[in-house]
Amino acid sequence: MLIKPTIFFRLRAALARHPNAIGVGSIAFSVIVLGFALAVLMQARQDATARAIENADNLARVIEHDITYTAELTDLSIQAAVDGAQDADVMRLPEQLRKELLFDRSATASQYIGSLLCLDSHGKIIVDSTSAVPRSVDLADRLWFTVHRDNPNLGLFISRPLHSRLNPNEVDLMFSRRVNHPDGSFAGVVVAAFRLDYFKNLLSGVRLGPGGAITLLQDDGHVILRYLNDETQVDEDFTGRKNFERFRRTHETSFFGTSGRDGQERLYNFREFDKLKMIVIIAPSSRYVFADWTSRAWYIGIVTALLIVGLLFAAQLLSVEFRHRLEVEEHLRNMTRIDGLTGLTNRRSLDDRLMLEWLRSKRSGKPLALLFVDIDRFKNYNDTYGHQAGDDALTAVAQAIARNSQRQGDIAARFGGEEFVVVLPETDGAGAAVVAANIHSAVRALAIEHTGSEHGVITVSIGVACTDAEEVADALALIKVADRAVYRAKASGRNQTSAAEPCGDAAVTT
């Protein structure tokens, strides 16, 4: 029972025929593995970026919520003081009672509110939360005062960080609202000095890793606080900074950028507050964002490199093995096609190739000639000089025949014993006679001594047959016709060529 070849064995056979395909295939597979590894690493990098952005956004939301809540509480205290300051009855009360009514306990008890002040229209303090006697300081030139004086409908105003005139060692953020007379004219300002320590304490628990930074600023670019504190100057302005301008220009909330201060690359995440004119920037260092990814990339890269190197090395060994096997198979195949003694095509291969040439001649209509070459009196030569000398003579004659049948398609074969066949595609009788004459000359030029021959040296007799002979019906008949022509040449005295009609004359003496 025949077993159908499996795909594995077919593939193995194909690789044996084309060993270079192993190298090409291994390179292609290595490229695929490398591409897959790169794709995995790129996806992992994108995932690390997405996680960092999500974490930064969550942190920014928490910071926004805390600051907004604190600002709203402070504004409620300021609004209560404004309402009281606009009430004439309240303002006529004794000073201590008036202060208690204007400034609730929650505001005055806050460790982050340095002072709550009520100023008249000239910038003089008329109620001071931290002093029984209002301090004598002229604050009429402060921006938080003039902006309310000139803008009746401004509402809550949050200033830039300012050095306090009342407490020189403090930097405060001023929350202020306008106070009006009953007729709507400017009556003064209620202001709360909010210490920056609140923002420092709020951000002190945040861990962004080495090189990370958090910046709180107003929407016009003026910095409120940078954390970790790197000696940010009071009233520092981000306007014109490339990363801040990129945010304002493109409205990208997350992107990688290089800091103009220290040259570090960071992942900048911007969030604008919904209720306050503030922006918080969460900027972890790129090295920190991709720390885990970098370790994983090194691991995957090393493993992938080792895999590819091992694959290519194994492919090289396999290719060498298949190439060696191919050479052995080719050698064995040649042994089945080549006569081991003379080096000419053997009888088996001759039959196959003659049939192909015969069919090709019939299709194309072009002539096909065949020479049947027989060494004269070769049995006597073997008996006289021995079989070793006979083998040497056979080889020498075979090479002389091969040298005179070297066109592409010509076939020089050992037919058996001392008989040879030469197949000459696209050759008529005249062309075949020329080849036969050349073979005669080449054999005689060998001058191999043969005392048993009437010519004194080894000679050959040649029979010529062509496809246009009437009795040639197939490839086998072509050989038979040429064989009969050889016998005629031998009967006519040997060392001759005899051609079957209509290839030429019946006998040609050389």
Jot down its keywords.
6-stranded mixed beta sheet, 510 residues, single chain, 20% strand, Beta-Lactamase
Structure description:
The chain has 15 helices and 17 strands. The longest helix has 66 residues, at 20-85. It folds into two domains: 16-335, 2-Layer Sandwich (Beta-Lactamase), CATH 3.30.450.20; 338-509, Reverse transcriptase/Diguanylate cyclase domain (Alpha-Beta Plaits), CATH 3.30.70. The two termini are 59 Å apart. The protein has helices at 7-17, 20-85, 88-91, 95-102, 105-109, 143-150, 197-203, 242-250, 286-289, 291-337, 347-364, 378-385, 387-403, 429-446, 475-491; strands at residues 113-120, 125-128, 157-158, 162-163, 171-180, 186-195, 213-218, 223-227, 254-258, 265-272, 278-283, 368-375, 411-416, 419-425, 460-466, 496-499, 508-509. 48% of the residues lie in helices and 20% in strands. Helix 2 (20-85) packs antiparallel against helix 10 (291-337), helix 12 (378-385) packs across helix 13 and helix 13 crosses helix 14. Strands 1, 2, 3, 4, 5 and 6 form a six-stranded antiparallel β-sheet that branches. It has a six-stranded mixed β-sheet with strand order 13-14-12-15-16-17, with helices on both faces.
